[in-house]
Design goal:
Elements (H helix, E strand, L loop, with lengths): L1 E5 L3 H10 L5 E6 L10 E4 L6 H6 L3 E4 L6 H8 L8 H7 L2 H10 L7 E4 L2 H11 L3 E5 L9 E4 L5 H8 L4 E5 L5 E9 L5 E3 L3 E6 L2 E7 L6 H18 L3 E10 L2 E8 L9 H4 L4 H10 L11 E8 L5 H6 L3 E5 L9 E9 L2 H12 L19
Parallel strand pairs: 1-2, 1-4, 2-3
Antiparallel strand pairs: 5-8, 6-7, 6-8, 9-10, 9-11, 9-13, 11-12, 12-15, 13-14, 15-17, 16-17
Helix pairs in contact: 1-10, 3-4, 6-7
The structure holds adenosine monophosphate.
Catalytic activity: 5-amino-1-(5-phospho-beta-D-ribosyl)imidazole + hydrogencarbonate + ATP = 5-carboxyamino-1-(5-phospho-D-ribosyl)imidazole + ADP + phosphate + 2 H(+)
Organism: Marinobacter aromaticivorans
Family: Belongs to the PurK/PurT family.
Amino acid sequence: MRIGVLGAGQLGRMLALAGYPLAKTFVFYDMSGSPSVGLGEVIVDREGKYLDDFLSRVDRVTYEFEHLPVEVAEKLAQEKPVHPCPRALQVCQNREAEKTLFGELGIPTPRWKIADSAGSLRAVAENLGCPVVAKSNTEGYDGKGQAVLRSPEDAEAAWEAIGHPRLMVEKFVEFSREVSIVAVRGEDGQLAFYPISENVHHEGILRYSIAPAPKLEKHTQQDAERYIKELMNELGYVGVLTLELFETANGLVANEMAPRVHNSGHWTIEGAMTSQFENHIRAVSGHPLGSVEPRGLSCMINIIGEHGEVERLLELPYAHVHLYNKGERPGRKLGHVNVLADSYEELVWRVRNCVQFLPGSPEFISSLNRKSKG
Ligand code: AMP
């Protein structure tokens, strides 16, 4: 079976690496002009001229990148199975549509309102009560196109800074930590849920994911499973879906969803019986899903901006190094390291050992060690 992937970055690369043992072949469709996938067949098409060519070479279509025109996915879906469905793309490209769907399905969100002028941003900030987070309603990711308003007086400057005609304005959530759940749904509706991971961000970029998230109440995992199940069933979803959430004193609050394999699920490559990548390939190919049981305790460390001392990392018997074959650039995701351990104490120790070889990595602070920092 030939799988067509829209997008040609590291997620596509890891999908292919997981798909080859199942005898899948891959054709990537790149609209950026700078594919980094480095394997499979790549069609570079900045002007959208070769879509039919792409389609003629594949049996099924999926994506590793959600910022592509919905019309493209819809056009493809008329000819070949496209998983996940174009509606999933449409929902996650528009924060208003996404939060509305969450609300309809009983998934808690921050209180939110839409602003379409500097004046209405000020009024919304007053109505919700500051602090609030204003985000461009479309085209935003990794914290880009966002501003926190500490007072309604900040509205004018925030409106100018974001420079977008329509803003999603959310009440600022006082969370104890950020978490996510990665789940997969098969063509037959079979569901599987990975354990929730705790995600540590620095300057808007994910740096560490710990899974299973430490000190997690049982009902929290159950709540997250219920929410993502509602979403997948509503959308008739096939493939891996990720739901990013805030953990608060009053339970989970949903932030956003990603209709694809996700950076916070990279730990599953060595840390789970079946990786998110293999399960995505299984789902879009119509196969039974693999077990999502963890193999132990995991931490994923992102390699950002510079590679650091890779040779030293490779000497560590517990460090599983994954490199994406990309050039160094500030803020760029170049690879990740998965670390496994039998106890959280050992995990912290191992992660710190790895981090010393990754210059520019923020200190590893999570719920495992935050209090002991004094
Ligand atoms: P997003 O692009 O929506 O994922 O937001 C990027 C980051 O901004 C999140 O990972 C959070 O750290 C932070 N953030 C987003 N929305 C809120 C909110 N309503 N309250 C507090 N922090 C937020």
